[in-house]
Automatic annotation (TrEMBL):
Composition-biased stretches (Low complexity): 195-207
Entry superkingdom: Eukaryota
Cross-referenced InterPro entries: Methyltranfer_dom (IPR025714), METTL25 (IPR052220)
Short name of any one Pfam family annotated for the protein: Methyltransf_32
PANTHER family attached to this UniProt entry: CGI-41 METHYLTRANSFERASE, METHYLTRANSFERASE-LIKE PROTEIN 25B
Name of the protein: rRNAD protein
Gene: Rrnad1
Species, as recorded: Cettia cetti
Residue ranges of the region described as Disordered: 139-162, 184-207, 248-307, 537-563
Annotated Methyltransferase domain residues: 208-351
Length: 563
């Protein structure tokens, strides 16, 4: 009998890797193959001849593709009459297979005007998208009703299962939550990190404390909300007092039976996060400084919180470097029992090279840092923030928004021809730019670029020829959208692997509906096993997006300052 051949060293190393490590390595190999496509800015479509850089076998099929066929390529659901080259099909299939599943896509493509799962008082000042997110992140079931018939409809504010943060609280025995909101590097430029020699300071600003208010009033948890701007603390506290006053009035009105709110407001603390400080000293003074004394550190107690118990940390769309900073604090802080984190604005992550003492936002893990080609450009990280489902919807609908990419690429060509120094300017001709004719759009854009529109020919044959290539620009954008989820998966896998290397239990959970909450993957980590916490969350995701969430008759009209 022939001897069984031994695996090669490379294969042996591959087999010894975890599934997450193998997926990260495979994503990097895919991105290296298509690095020019990933790093290209669509506004350079004409100035850099991006179409000619695509594989020649792809160009004829993409030139003749309709928006609906491109939507089928993007979503993996085919398209009428599409005949794609095998190499393009393989590229699309690999990109989709390596990206982390984004969860259930059922229900409406838009969140309801008002969520029936939230108490009416917790819906005030909160936009529909944010209602969906806080309901999914901290959803709590209604009090059981033994008299309810088996098939009767659900009552408002009711749901069959407790949700993520409540499950974490039950599993860890932690009743205190730190809610740390969206943050950014104050001194950084375009997310490339600070230019000075000192570590970055991260400003925190959940501007109106909606999640904190839900966790405190809705779930009865002890909540500390950390905010960077002392002025926003006053606004959040005003909303808290408004809710407390309204609680006293609800007894006078007849409402459907629902879980009662707890008259317990969150504590709001003004301060900035120092990512390099020890866990017990991570708060810096707010910016601008407040008139009162410096806030006490919410993790300053002997066990974590002031009462000595451990805490849960949550960050809903913690921007840029704030997400990795929170993970590092969790890893070295025994006071934190668990963390639930939703990141965003990946282009603001600090990447190498950085001045001494400045931590990197990517990569965090030694696993990813050791992989050749792991580096991600600003453009790649920016692409990871795109809303793939929304772009697919626009393709299927033939949305006029699609022409905006071509408009901006033609405008870039005109600006560079008039003044080669002016490149990649941050121009904002308006939110309705797609509804303008190109001469109207270009006139506004040239003025913003500091150029005289009268000196630029807007009706030349060259301009007309570029505008006629809108379908090619849209096709090129679609290819970039295909890679975007794989880039986001790599960034999130890096964070997960960093926590695994520290010995923690962690998982990525697609908690929100990606149709209207594109950054829907929640990184959950704890010092204890997560099996009971995560069990059934996928089913809850489908339940939470059912038709029970509908526009309610008592929906409030938008008010000034809604968030």
């Amino acid at each position: 009998m022939a001897a069984v051949p031994h695996p090669t060293p490379h294969l042996q190393q591959h087999l010894e890797q975890s599934p997450e490590q193998r997926r990260a390595a495979d994503i990097i190999r895919l991105l290296m193959l298509y690095r020019p496509l990933l790093d290209a800015f669509v506004i350079d479509f004409f100035t850099d001849g991006l179409w000619a850089q695509l594989p020649p076998a792809w160009q004829p099929a993409l030139t003749n593709a309709t928006p609906v066929q491109l939507a089928g390529l993007l979503g993996g659901r085919g398209g009428p009459g599409a005949a794609w080259p095998l190499s393009l099909l393989a590229f699309a299939a690999a990109a989709r297979a390596l990206a982390f599943p984004r969860g259930y896509l059922g229900g409406s493509p838009r969140p309801p005007c008002q969520s029936s799962h939230l108490h009416p008082l917790l819906r005030r000042h909160v936009k529909p998208k944010k209602q969906h997110e806080i309901q999914r992140l901290g959803k709590v079931g209604a009090l059981p009703n033994p008299l309810r018939p088996p098939n009767s409809p659900q009552l408002p504010n009711s749901s069959p299962h407790p949700q993520l943060l409540q499950r974490l609280s039950q599993a860890t025995g932690s009743k205190h939550v730190m809610d740390i909101g969206a943050g950014q590097v104050r001194a950084g430029g375009h997310g490339e990190g600070p230019r000075g020699s000192s570590p970055p300071e991260l400003s925190l600003s959940p501007p109106q404390g909606h999640l904190s208010r839900f966790l405190a009033f809705g779930l009865g948890l002890s909540v500390t909300a950390v905010e960077s701007d002392g002025r926003l603390v006053g606004l959040a506290e005003r909303f808290d007092q408004e809710l407390l006053r309204e609680l006293g009035k609800t007894k006078e009105h007849k409402r459907p039976p629902m879980r009662p709110l707890t008259p317990q407001a969150p504590q709001h603390v003004a301060g900035r996060l120092d990512p390099a400080a020890p866990w017990g000293e991570f708060l810096l003074p707010p910016n601008p400084p407040g008139p009162g004394p410096a806030a006490r550190n919410p993790l300053g107690g002997p066990g974590g919180s002031e009462d000595g118990g451990q805490v849960l940390v949550t960050g809903l769309h913690a921007c840029g470097d704030l997400s990795p900073a929170l993970l590092c604090h969790f890893a070295r802080s025994p006071a934190v029992a668990a963390i639930a984190l939703v990141g965003c604005c990946y282009m603001k992550l600090s990447t190498a090279p950085q001045p001494p003492g400045c931590p990197l936002g990517y990569p965090l893990s030694t696993s990813v840092a050791a992989l050749p080609g792991h580096q991600l450009s600003y453009r790649a990280r920016e692409a990871a923030c795109h809303a793939l489902e929304e772009y697919e919807r626009r393709l299927r609908a033939g949305s006029p928004h699609l022409r905006a990419h071509c408009y901006r690429a033609v405008l870039e060509s005109l600006i560079r021809a008039a003044d080669p120094v002016k490149r990649h300017l941050g121009l904002q001709p308006g939110r309705k730019a797609h509804a303008l004719s190109f001469p109207q759009y270009a006139h506004l854009g040239l003025l913003l670029a500091g150029l005289d529109p009268a000196g630029v020919p807007l009706d030349s044959g060259d301009v007309g020829a570029m505008l006629e290539q809108q379908h090619k620009v849209v096709a090129f954008c679609t290819l970039g959208q295909l890679l975007a989820p794989a880039v986001e998966t790599l960034i999130l896998l890096d964070r997960l692997l960093y926590l695994r290397e520290q010995g923690f239990h962690c998982a990525l959970v697609p908690l929100f509906n990606p149709r209207f909450s594109p950054r829907n993957l929640v990184l959950v980590a704890a010092r204890t096993p997560l099996a009971t916490v995560l069990a059934g969350l996928d089913k809850d995701s489908k339940d939470g997006d059912s038709s029970e969430d509908e526009d309610l008759g008592e929906a409030e009209s938008p008010r000034e300052g809604q968030s």
